[in-house]
Amino acid sequence: xxxxxxxxxxxxxxxxxxxxxxxxxxxxxxxxxxxxxxxxxxxxxxxxxxxxxxxxxxxxxxxxxxxxxxxxxxxxxxxxxxxxxxxxxxxxxxxxxxxxxxxxxxxxxxxxxxxxxxxxxxxxxxxxxxxxxxxxxxxxxxxxxxxxxxxxxxxxxxxxxxxxxxxxxxxxxxxxxxxxxxxxxxxxxxxxxxxxxxxxxxxxxxxxxxxxxxxxxxxxxxxxxxxxxxxxxxxxxxxxxxxxxxxxxxxxxxxxxxxxxxxxxxxxxxxxxxxxxxxxxxxxxxxxxxxxxxxxxxxxxxxxxxxxxxxxxxxxxxxxxxxxxxxxxxxxxxxxxxxxxxxxxxxxxxxxxxxxxxxxxxxxxxxxxxxxxxxxxxxxxxxxxxxxxxxxxxxxxxxxxxxxxxxxxxxxxxxxxxxxxxxxxxxxxxxxxxxxxxxxxxxxxxxxxxxxxxxxxxxxxxxxxxxxxxxxxxxxxxxxxxxxxxxxxxxxxxxxxxxxxxxxxxxxxxxxxxxxxxxxxxxxxxxx
Length: 528
Prior knowledge:
Elements: H1 15-26, H2 29-48, H3 50-62, H4 72-82, H5 84-88, H6 99-115, H7 118-137, H8 139-144, H9 146-151, H10 163-180, E1 186-188, E2 191-194, E3 197-200, H11 208-225, H12 229-261, H13 263-273, H14 276-290, H15 312-317, H16 324-345, E4 364-367, E5 384-392, E6 397-405, E7 428-433, E8 441-447, E9 451-461, E10 464-466, H17 469-481, E11 488-496, H18 503-514, H19 517-524
Antiparallel strand pairs: 1-2, 2-3, 4-5, 5-6, 6-11, 7-8, 8-9, 9-10, 9-11
Helix pairs in contact: 2-7, 2-16, 3-7, 6-7, 6-16, 6-17, 10-12, 11-12, 12-13, 12-14
């Protein structure tokens, strides 16, 4: 009797092929064709939107506010893996209604790209991937993996728009706690003056970093650790409120320590404490308080809505299927159409004059621009910029900045963060919003804790005159989508606080003198 020899793997077969074959065997046969088509669609979407994915990854990696997003893909992978057994029982079928959200996502990406609005184009890029999954794999797979599919939205960096509001909230919390603790203090916008020195609730101290991270974590915990919607809502309320309140206490603690130990010691302590250590303590406190009400084991995660087949409406919706190859062709036709339209729109630019000048204003004279503290608004990528000072017969002075753009796109966007009246890299700091000025966004700026300036920013495109960055972006999106070459203008009127002068009155007098502000801007741009 001879002993059978064990079968040996031929040495000429690459190990990578063996691993690939092993992984392929673990994928159910009825999933392979659909996953291949999904992979091709995903590659095509990434090829179209790659600039946005590179920009997002740069933010995830280099901006501390978004470092937590690096974990989101891993979380999504874990959520899908946890429901692998349930998904294996589903037969994926392409679902033609999924083309509708895909078309909407691509349109949003197109509009954001045309107007240079990163938040819109990045959101569109992520939504396009989500929609492709729904379209290619079908309604049944989408419903079974609804949470990880929806959680992909946290790949989009968001939160910058919350910074001014969070600064004001933190400042109000700090002044209340400071006065409560017996320290005399005076608040002026986001600046708090105490016996130990002047403190600023800067953008980095707004708490937005921990708020956006806590929202992403809170949604995950609410889903995996709770079954009851009431408990989920209560937990999310705590996840939003706690970091805001904790950030106010932290900022107050810095001021409190500075009164006895000095500003340098307080700043050093704050820099050490105010980081992920602080975030970990806040998270630990929230989880410790909520632990006793957890009613779901994260290990028990299965498919979402396991009994969806019993719903009559889903039985009808689930029938709206299409062949996988027809779906693949439809997806690529959509992507090609958007790519062509984007290429056409990117070439649209308005005709503008080769030179513009500051106009004469009745009752006002152009004088030398000599600010107490250098103030120069930022207008990256503008084709023309003007900066000058007008003085009235009564001695009032107003500074005027005007920027003209032939088109709006990335790198030359009038309403982008850091553009306009307040340049974060300058000596000026945002203080607080000012009283409403018609058709303008008004703010107070402060330099070196004592020099104050009022600024009012107005945007103009076509017949639109507004101080709203959102309205400007929507108008830019409309024009680029319709291939309408319309120039964009930005006007910043500003007045320094001098010898008790009334800044608001100076701006109001100047605005009355120029008449219709939109027409005045059009004349500078030689459109009238």
